[in-house]
């Protein structure tokens, strides 16, 4: 007769119940003995050691209700749902701190109580509800803390953007301290290329909410990133006479000042670090700087209209094989009236709502600490 072996058992929990997945297929002769604090299972099936007799005993951390608990046998496993007598998160499954080697954590099923309701719009998991518990369990299981790929990527992305804007600001500051206002004429020559590279990277911020990496609005990101790209690539880079204007210096100064606050704030949020002053600065500095930035962008567009009237750059005239005409200066006027001004209102309104919500939440946290 074959020796009795122990199957792999994967467990997870909510506040109300414990789920077990017994890794056995083609199960026969299943015998289950469930009491308030113990579970005994024996069965014949296909496990890690082939077809054999398997069994395991569990002394549970807390009491369950045997009458409300159940199990079912499916082709690939045996599933148990154990109803807890008292609603609470258990620090571990077993009564003893030593975890048997065959008992594993089913991280895919670690959901909070809200996830049991299909009508809930917001999905949450233990990593948000009980981050310390999740980290400890993961380290116990694998010996290390596994970081989420999206989180690691976002930290690296935000850090790269922060370093890029610090570089732009530092170059502009050093040049201004050395040459004074005369340095403004060469601002685009000095920092134009790195700023264009940073701006191209920012298009990833439109993709982040689409991939589920962030909870921000893809439309708002498109307005902000697309608007900056329009100014940088079509209004400044495409017209050499605009590149020497002092307004370019002021615009780059505003952009960089906003971003050297925004990106460190995002990094601290990803790392679950709360810095009250940085939060306040993130949701306050935009009040003077956004209007200044919009004013600089509007001046650049207005001053460029005569230049593009003269050069006809980006203007498409008839006849052509596509039978299509585009007068670019008219498009610039249309952008100012119907895209630029509504875009300002949308971004400012959204930032004001975010500021009210975030700073109010921060005040509540400080009050009850």
UniProtKB/TrEMBL annotation:
Pfam families in the record: CS (PF04969), PTPLA (PF04387)
Membrane topology (UniProt): Multi-pass membrane protein
GO BP term (any one): very long-chain fatty acid biosynthetic process
Domain CS as annotated: residue spans: 4-94
EC identifiers of the protein: 4.2.1.134
Biological role stated in the UniProt entry: Catalyzes the third of the four reactions of the long-chain fatty acids elongation cycle. This endoplasmic reticulum-bound enzymatic process, allows the addition of two carbons to the chain of long- and very long-chain fatty acids/VLCFAs per cycle. This enzyme catalyzes the dehydration of the 3-hydroxyacyl-CoA intermediate into trans-2,3-enoyl-CoA, within each cycle of fatty acid elongation. Thereby, it participates to the production of VLCFAs of different chain lengths that are involved in multiple biological processes as precursors of membrane lipids and lipid mediators.
Positions of transmembrane segments: 152-174, 247-265, 285-305, 326-348
Xref: PROSITE patterns: CS
InterPro entries associated with the record: CS_dom, HSP20-like_chaperone, Tyr_Pase-like_PTPLA
Protein's name according to its UniProt entry: Very-long-chain (3R)-3-hydroxyacyl-CoA dehydratase
Species of origin: Ooceraea biroi (Clonal raider ant)
Catalysed conversion reaction: a very-long-chain (3R)-3-hydroxyacyl-CoA = a very-long-chain (2E)-enoyl-CoA + H2O
GO molecular function: very-long-chain (3R)-3-hydroxyacyl-CoA dehydratase activity
Record's GO cellular component terms: endoplasmic reticulum membrane
Keyword Transcription on entry: no
Pathway: Lipid metabolism; fatty acid biosynthesis
Compartments where found: Endoplasmic reticulum membrane
Main location: endoplasmic reticulum
Domain of life: Eukaryota
Keyword Electron transport: no
Record keywords, A-Z: Coiled coil, Endoplasmic reticulum, Fatty acid biosynthesis, Fatty acid metabolism, Lipid biosynthesis, Lipid metabolism, Lyase, Membrane, Transmembrane, Transmembrane helix
CDD domains (UniProt xref): p23_hB-ind1_like
UniProt similarity note: Belongs to the very long-chain fatty acids dehydratase HACD family.
